[in-house]
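Researcher: I'm preparing a figure for a lab meeting and need a structural model of a single chain. I don't have an experimental structure, so a prediction will have to do for now. The sequence is pasted below. Please return the structure as tokens so I can convert it later.
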Amino acid sequence: MEGVLAGVGHATSLTLAISFTLCVSFDLLFPDHAMYEAWQKLLPGFEWISWKSFFLGLIEAYGYGWFFALIWVPIYNFVVLRGGQEKHSDG
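Model: Understood. Here is the structure written out token by token.
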């Protein structure tokens, strides 16, 4: 299970970190369509924009990915194992 958890944790965390970076880049390129207010609500301490705030947001986005994985993987494994046991008990 540790291998699956690590894989899901890193993959989800990197997805959120990349999404955060793309959104910040988008906001800098198109300030009239900025989305940074959403990040301010989701990421404690994030402000628009300084290097310190950007890296804080990046770390928090990565952390949210691990938070998701630590909840999702055990629930998924429980559901899959339970489903497998039900199939074997019917047969």
